[in-house]
Amino acid sequence: MNRSPWLLLILVILLQGGVFNRIHWMGIINPMVYVMALVWLPLGWNLGVQMLVAFGIGWWVDSSFQSGAIHAMVSTLVIYLRSYWIRFTVSPVTLQDHPDPDLRDLEFRSLLSYAGGLIFIHHTALYLLESLRWAHWGYSLLKAFASSVLVFGLLWSTLQWTSSNKPAR
Amino acid sequence: MGALAIWLFKYRFFLGLIFLESIGAWITFSEQAYHRSRLNQWQIETAGAYQASVNRATRFWRMDDENLRLNQEIALLTQRLSDSLVLGDTSSQKSRSAVTLDSTFKVDLVRAARVLYAGTNTQHNYLLLDKGSLDGLEPRMAVVQDHKIVGQVQAVSPRFARVIPLINTKLRTSALHPASQTTGSLVWAGGSTRYAELMDFPIHIPIKVGDSLVSSSFSSVYPPGLRLGRIDRVETIPGAITYKIRVLLSIDYHRLDHVLVMRPVFQQEREELIPNQD
Question: Rounded to 10 degrees, what is the CA torsion of A143, A23, B30, A70?
């Protein structure tokens, strides 16, 4: 593991509270960029520690949204699912060589299915939990999809930018 | 014991997830009024759906008695509708037709409902009806059967309503003793579902076993004159300024199937003038 998640973690949490909480484009795009930090957390950490960190991040976001603890619940769920999700979305060969792969080393298709999938799961669970009405599932899915596309785009851009500054291995 | 420890260790992360999610859910439902209200509605809907299926399964066996009683009620209502006063658009299915109960009191919405569940075993009993907000039901509407008070609507979901009956220790109902035109408070202290107590009835007023009690005009929920029960036992306590009175309730909650839900006219206007007790 040669990456530190703390800088990104602090950055996206500050951005979430200061900028992205206020974004409600067309009533459907309300990106939760802090999920990038969850995806970025090292898989090598103990899962219990990861879940506690995710719960803490989510709760911090909840306190700025005044939303109870729904972000905490969803973040914990995403972190728990992540260790299983990666086995379905990243090739076994890659995982054999790098059990905790750096996102910058993943092919775009793997990155899209792994990180994009987790981001979509996060947003979908969040908006469903937020509305708590099955009748609104279509609207929740639309919001989740639109916001996930934006967050994934930001993640991909961040990875591209950091890749250019990454020392060669 | 060892097997349990192995099982707990094996699923420790999943159990951790359940624990954290439970904490999150507890915080959310404690802090968020919207989520609490959705949970409440979901509970009513679930209980209603379950009781509706139980009710469907057992309804056939009670059909004869119920048909007879419903026919009698239809005849009674038809008689009353002859002097009804139309307040709204009668072409609409949900129009509000005012039905005169007596010469002084009118209700502007009446709905027949089926009792899906009638709890009688706890201190805080409740009933569940198969009509909800989609049928125009709202909290604080009166629930009656054959001119007898059953209780009042406490909460509604789109398709179901929860009723707080007289046999709930939280409910206190104003009761009029017609013979003396004196009011007291009818409360249920638990125990038998057939009996309640009449409180605050002054000892200088003559009262005897067999006297009837009806709803008083003090209540904004119930139309006045509906039967509550009959005096079953009167005791005087030395030094006390009120009687100790046991009342035989008119409604038998063990034999409750159909009810009418009604709202007095101008209820909202009347309640707006009452200072908020909160």
Answer: 50
B30 at interface of A, judged by CB pairs closer than 8 A: yes
Nearest by Cα to B133 from B107, B155, B165:
B155
For helices A70-89 and B12-31, the axis angle rounded to 10 degrees is 150
Q: Are B157 and B133 in contact (CB under 8 A)?
A: yes
The residue ranges of chain B whose pLDDT is under 50 are 82-83, 85-104, 278
Tell me the pLDDT tens digit for each residue of A73-105: 999 999 999 988 988 888 888 888 777 788 888
Q: CA nearest B124: which of B177, B87, B171? A: B171
Collapse the DSSP code of A165 into the 3-class scheme (helix H, G, I; strand E, B; otherwise coil) and give the result: coil
Q: Determine, for residues A51 and B38 on separate chains, whether the beta-carbon distance falls below 8 Å.
A: no
The token pair that represents B212 in the structure block: 């009837």
Type of residue at B213: L
pLDDT value, residue B278: 45
How far B3 CA sits from the closest chain A CA (Å)? 22
Contact flag B28-A47 (C-beta cutoff 8 Å): no
What region does A127 belong to: left with phi over 0, alpha with psi -120 to 50, or beta? alpha
Cβ of B16 within 8 Å of Cβ of A69? The answer is: no
| DSSP symbol at A115 | I
Amino acid at B138: E
Structure tokens at A127: 């908006």
Both tokens of B252, joined, read: 């038998």
Nearest of A16, A13, A79 to residue A46 by alpha carbon: A79
Q: Are A68 and B17 an interchain contact pair (Cβ–Cβ within 8 Å)?
A: no
B24/A48 CB distance under 8 A: no
Q: Does A51 touch chain B (CB under 8 A)?
A: yes
Which residue of A lies nearest to B12 if distances are taken between CA atoms?
A48
From the list A88, A92, A155, A83, the residue with the least C-alpha distance to A119 is: A155
Q: Exposed, middle or buried by CB within 10 Å (0-12, 13-18, 19+), for A40?
A: buried
Question: Tell me, what amino acid is at A97?
Answer: D
Whole-angstrom distance, CA of residue B163 vs CA of residue B47? 13
Question: Could you tell me if the ipTM is greater than 0.90?
Answer: no
Q: Does A68 touch chain B (CB under 8 A)?
A: yes
* Residues facing residue B163 across a β-bridge: B127, B153
Contact assignment for B25 to A69 by CB distance below 8 Å: yes
In the stretch 86-115 of chain A, residues with CB closer than 8 A to chain B read none
Please list every residue in chain B whose beta carbon sits closer than 8 Å to the beta carbon of residue A52: 20
> Is a pLDDT exceeding 60 seen at residue A13?
yes
